[in-house]
Amino acid sequence: MLRHGLRAFVALSALMLAQPVWADDAKPLAGQSISVLLPSGQRPGLAEDFEKETGIHVDLQSLSWNDIRAKLVTSLLAGSAPADVTEVDWSWTGQFGAAGWYTPLDGLLDEATVKDIATSPIFRYDGKLIALPYNNDFRVLIVNKEHFDKAGITAMPKTLDELLAAARTLKEKGVSKYPIGIPLSPAEGTSTAWYLLTKAFGGELFDKDFKPLFTDPSSAGHKALAFEIDALKQGLVDPAAPGLIDMDVHQLFMDGQVSMEICGEVGRLALFNDASKSKVAGKAVAALFPTASGVTRSLGLPEAMGIPVTSQKKEAALAFVKWMSAKEQQLKNYTEAGTLATRTSALEDLNKVGKLESGKVLIEQASTAGGLFPQGTPIWYPQFSSAVYTAINQAAKGQLSVDDALKQIADETERAMQQ
Fold first, then answer.
1. How does DSSP classify residue 18?
2. Rounded to an integer, what distance in angstroms lies between the CA atom of residue 170 and that of residue 181?
3. Cβ-based neighbours of 407, under 8 Å, separated by 6 or more
4. How far is residue 183's CA from residue 222's CA, in Å, rounded to a whole number?
5. Are 200 and 160 in contact (CB under 8 A)?
6. 68-86 confidence digits (pLDDT tens)
7. Residue 367 predicted with pLDDT over 90
8. Is 18 buried (19+), middle (13-18) or exposed (0-12) by CB count in 10 A?
9. Are 387 and 412 in contact (CB under 8 A)?
10. Strand 260-265 and strand 139-144: pairing?
11. Whole-angstrom Cα distance, residue 389 to residue 191?
């Protein structure tokens, strides 16, 4: 986190203490016990704070993102509850919604809360809200400002052409050998980068009927993949990128070897600027993501909380969802664990007291962070994503042309749709 004066800390503390969700004498569910399954990295004391305020005991379980999905699918297919409250990633909405695995939250939550959380629509399936976002994630361009200063680059790139020009300058002046950080391995992060660049080129991946739009050479998806492969061939991207996952790219940035991280995760800014973990502390800043037109655009990839229909303690589970999504908890989760608030009002409050790194940029970018699928995440998304990162990896290795890679993705997607 950035260091700030006592005045900012006091102001933030006042915000977090204002308007408690639960009055001390209002604990109607006290004595109950629920299980909660979320990714590792939750703030210390979260479960204890909830129990203190509500009297509800929480067995907080933490697993990696991939392990959580495997546990959820296995349990839910068997008709059992993996936990009373679980992680629901944006990319699972179609599969989980179609299966009817999660309790619709419509009518159970305050409408003002749902409206304040701008990414809520991403978790609607067939019109029903199956989960509520608690961890904000959208993409920005993350830049090593010191590298830009050394190269004499005085302005953040607004267009993709300007981004490439900046990368060439950084390379020519010896500031960084491979200025652009991007994963090209067969993993989800590779798919995500292509999705974002497709939006940056002004298009979508599918039409309203889920017909692929990316095989046409004039399409945004085609231009996006060509952009990645051309940058790799020009030496602006590390030739080892076909073997790098997104975590590897993060480390290269923290080691000062990458100047610009494409598809930068907003939640990583605090880590990048942590002197105990990063060699570029105090130098990492967020910039609005460049586009072909110069009008910024981003991709929303939030995480949410859902209540399985198989939970036997839905009332207490709902109490946890409401408590976790309250503004004061979102503020606390950010300051203590770096979990970026999903409430617009919380982001604004954090920025007012100087606690939101690159706050002005993040608030502006958040307003442009739409879902990958305007019509809702389809049930066949996992197969689609696998087809995407497999083909892109093959193209990066020179095994497929851009045209052939995109045709392969389209063919695999059609097969997935028919299953």
1. S
2. 13
3. 215
4. 18
5. yes
6. 999 999 999 999 999 999 9
7. no
8. exposed
9. yes
10. antiparallel
11. 5
